[in-house]
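[STRUCTURE TOKENS]
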Amino acid sequence: MKKILLATTLLLPMALPAAAEGELNIYAWADSIAPELLEKFTAETGVEITVDSYSSNEDALTRLQAGSSGYDLITPSQHFVKIMIDEGLLMDIDASEMDAYAQVEDKWKGQWWDPENDYSIPLAYGTAGFAVNRDLYDGPVDSWSVLFEPTDLSGSIAMLSYPDEVVSAAELYLGVDYCSEETSEMRKVYDLLEAQKSSVVAYTSDNIENRIGSGEVAAHFWWDGNVLKARNDGANLEFAMPKEGLVGWLDSFVVPAGAENVDNAKAFIDFMSTVENATIQYNYYAHSSPVELDLEKAVYTPENAPELFPDVPVVFAEACSPAAQDLVTRVWTDLLQ
């Protein structure tokens, strides 16, 4: 019996590639998945992975709305997961039945964007805020006023090129509810951003690290973990902790409706959610993990990565009603015209 069991065990690794061979096409945030894990998954399963990247939730949504995206996995943020579900753009993968689901922290289960946990498995979470280059600016960073109503930073600010988190941050600063349908309230948001515009060098979501790290600008709207990685690479940056709060986000794995390699997509989600691999991903991506980690191997702590452990309120972005989203779009379109 012992010899039979041993023989079976030896055969299993040889059988896996044949069972899972094929391909997997991923559309994810730029540089968001550890290359080491992509290579490891292919080595273990024989599945060839292609990864294309995007720099905004809006890009991911537009790609799915166009139909026949050709992707098997996408990693949108929570409010866009909700939008994609409501528009019938995602496949019900019975996420709560997957091995990965058992690894997810309880606080991320049953959330409003996927209350029955049918469509998504969380990948990473964090905050959107702004960073300053301390070689160029030595003032306070305890309020959004530093960015939205600048004095010393005037003429040396860059913002993201999409409204998603920028408008949410402006709403936080002004005390306007996310997804407000009140024209008068959104007029306040527009007026704030319009007044700031003369101080903004660029509205862009690309090449942020070089732009702020080189001193081209002294402040940039950015994400917590990206600031952390740039700081660890030698840039003299500080991620602001505004008293009004930070915009929260949680990105999840989802499978587009019509995906061709669903089994491989689900296998990859389970693979990424194991303790060992989630820890590798956390150490690479430098954003907080919603699944269990090996804390002895996790490199980021409150002491060396304050960006990941905010001491101010975090308010997660919401999926707006069509009326509210129309107001957001109008604010942004009028701002950039």
